[in-house]
Amino acid sequence: MTAMLLEQLVVALQDDVVSVLSEGTEAEPRVVGVELLDSPEVVRATASRHLLLGVGVDIEDPDAMDTALRTAADTSCALAVKCALPARDALLARIRSTGVPVLAVNPQMPWTRVQRLVTTVLTARAVDSEPDGARTGGDLFSLANAVAGIVGGAVAIMDTQQIIVAYSNLPDQPIDDIRRQGILGRRVPEDAIADHLDRKVWTSETVVRHQRSGSLPRMAVVIRAGEDVLGSLWAAFPDDTSVPDCGPTLQEAARVAALHMLALRRQVDAEQESRDRALRSALEGRSGQSDLPGGVRLPGVLVGLSEAAREGGETGDAGSAARRHAALLRLVDLAVLDSRSLGYEPAAALLGEHVYVLLPAAGSGRVSTGVLLDHLLDRARHSLHRSFVAVGSPTVGALSPLLRARRDIDAALDHLRERCADPGAYRTEDLRPELVLRRLVRAVRDDGELRTGIVERLRAHDAEHATEYAATLLAYLRHFGDVVAASGALHIHQNTLRLRLRRAEELFGVWLADPTRRLLLTLELTALTQP
Length: 531
What we know:
Strand order of the largest sheet: 2-7-6-5-4
Strand content: 15-25%
Helix content: 40-55%
Distance between the termini: 64 Å
Number of helices: 19
């Protein structure tokens, strides 16, 4: 495996995985592999220029740290230990005195995850170091055609999200309904997902034969980079008698496909992170008044999602808040994966308790945003066991409309939550009357100069005399002066309602015959008597 600068490895893993505690005394320390520091004797005999994972090393135990540092120094290796930042000065002094490069691993990150990430990054580095075309054999479609020509079958390459990333298109290839639907939809058909996820295929180190009733026989092999599973390669054959002994060929094809998929994954992930950062910056207003971050692709549709209100409310303990936050983070991942699988290049961000997804209009997917949202909400309900509401904006083409779209979406999500609206997809344009009313009510509530003062007198009288003039007037106005409907809503006799209205006019100067005063009174009552 090609050596990689330790500094580059840290950058690739990012701060939430590892950080540098000490750079060591070597000018440019390099890493060629990763090794568990579970037995210093074995490490001294086998490892050189590796990153030693200090599994079980207690940084508060001087003897344990000294042993780990001495082992790393003897083998010219770097050391990684679990350590919360900022590290104590005494610990840093002990580390720096040895000259060993040491990384601090996020204490919340499992060692198995760190090992897999390092292995994947180092493998990807090996791909970059190879001469162009020397071992990769062109793009994935060329690879699929080459393999199909060798084995005499029809080849398809899928990633772990059941997306078909490449397929052979040679003439006279065998085809069945599963392959036809998969190519047309560019993903594994719904009724074939169970076959695609067959545990025997994904856990095998060799090629596995697979056939379902009514379909062509297939050979499948998992595509791996180190311990990281990237996808699978499948070859379909006309019948049982035509399946050749092609195991070595398919395994070599899977190895070559892994090189492409690693490079593709790194490129896609880097672009996705750039878009996500740009969207967050734009929505937080950190891009200036007119500057549009480079990763934000407009025109597009902004979608906001939040968890639907639950019957009986939610507990406010720290555990439930942490679970909600974790669910929202997973929703971000689902939104990106679903959007990608349906042909979009989304940007996503979690701000507060709202998830935002920007779906570019240019070069959009083959399905509408409405279909995409319905699909996403259904997946979230089944995967996260939670229900969400989604609100989409009209198409926006500049930064200012994008910020207005966020404000509209936030108001719409708050409104739907207060009304305990059913989970599902909504549009801000359909909710425009409610959004305008919310803003009017908020303005009246916040600015005393926009109020006549009648409602304050009504509420003071109700509080002092245990009357219900404010509630009575609001019910009457909301039912457009229908005495029967208003009295029914208040569970009082119609004559009682009429008496209260007359008394309100006498005591407070309420003039219900004037449309302007009725409008102002409705706004004031809504602003000052509703939560």
